[in-house]
Amino acid sequence: METRSRIARYGNSLTVRIPVAVARELDLRAGDTVLLRTVAEGVFIERSKQGRLATRLATVTVAEAEIGTGHAVGAEVFE
How far apart are CA 41 and CA 53, in angstroms? Predict the structure, then answer.
């Protein structure tokens, strides 16, 4: 897909708006991290190889304790 976008100022930085069609095609969302790399023709934007779940799980420092559900009442089986 090829499209045009305009450069804007955001504080002391410059930004490029990513059209919604491109964002949907690449499954990009606000807050996602991308890799910017300069190439001979300009700038290459690459989606992070690490998924959103992996990013969130990386922030976990202490494992959660198990939660007891009590004794079985019906035919349910927990393994």
Answer: 33
